[in-house]
Design brief:
CATH topology: Porin
Largest sheet: 8 strands, antiparallel, barrel
CATH architecture: Beta Barrel
Order of helices and strands: HEEEEEHHEEE
Radius of gyration: 25 Å
Shape: elongated
Strand content: over 45%
Distance between the termini: 45 Å
Strand order of the largest sheet: 1-2-3-4-5-6-7-8
Number of domains: 1
Number of helices: 3
Structural class: alpha+beta
């Protein structure tokens, strides 16, 4: 039994040493990195013109000598609300004398997909600064129009199918946006993984639920995490 345990321990140590050795001998150029990240992003909503939400996500970065490709997916955590116009004819004024606001929509969470081209200036063996330019696709994960308050105040959730269609269409229109994105960061090579930190900025599209009047014209995201070099990004001739 002791011999079996000794063999098992030796095998685990060998695997750890092998993984560390493989990672330490892989360079930055012509590599494929997989990463995990966390951070925070700024946004604005009706209830808060300058809010900060935590984010978690994954990313992939493919490198060449001077440039590469970056793809990431992240999720922001928040619970907020906005108001949309639900007026379809003079009898459906917005706001009304009964309700001081228009139709409330409760929103929570945001998915974001980022695709960017990267450049890698001033590289050293252990430090790799980078900059990226691309596009970010943002989508509010959950957006539900209020009906409970309308039933309480008016006796019905919507005055007509036309009003329902207007509210639903407005939610879908302002729920998703695509914006240009700029990324600036640095990656530090370590024995087992590479750690990184970067900041990114996107324009705050006014036709988006998280761009309230009076808010900033940009959404800024701060992220940090770790990337593992899974191997070469090109097949070399043997």
């Amino acid at each position: 039994m002791r011999a079996i345990r000794a063999v098992a321990v030796a095998a685990l140590v060998a695997l750890d040493v092998s993984a560390a050795s493989a990672q330490s001998t892989r360079g930055f150029t012509d590599s494929w990195f997989w990463g995990l990240k966390g951070g925070a992003t700024t946004y604005s909503a009706f209830s808060d013109a300058a809010a900060l939400a935590p984010i978690v996500g994954i990313d992939w970065m493919i490198t060449r000598k001077a440039g590469g490709l970056y793809v990431s997916f992240d999720h922001a955590l928040f619970d907020q609300f906005v108001f949309v116009n639900d007026s379809v004819h003079p009898d459906d004024e917005c706001p009304t004398t009964i309700r001081p606001e228009c139709r409330r929509v409760d929103i929570s969470g945001m998915h974001r997909l980022t695709v960017a081209g990267m450049i890698f200036p001033l590289q050293t063996t252990f430090i790799q600064p980078y900059a990226g330019f691309g596009v970010a696709f943002s989508h509010v994960a959950s957006a539900e129009a209020d009906t409970i308050a309308y039933v309480r105040d008016f006796g019905f959730p919507f005055r007509s199918p036309l009003q329902f269609d207007l509210v639903s269409g407005t939610i879908q229109q302002f729920r998703t946006t695509a914006s240009p994105i700029v990324i600036l960061g640095t990656q530090l090579r370590m024995p087992l993984v590479s750690i990184f930190g970067h900041v990114s900025a996107t324009t705050a599209n006014q036709n988006f639920m998280l761009s309230a009047p009076g808010g900033s014209g940009f959404r800024v995201t701060f992220e940090a995490g770790a990337r593992y070099n899974v191997g070469g990004s090109i097949d070399r001739m043997r």
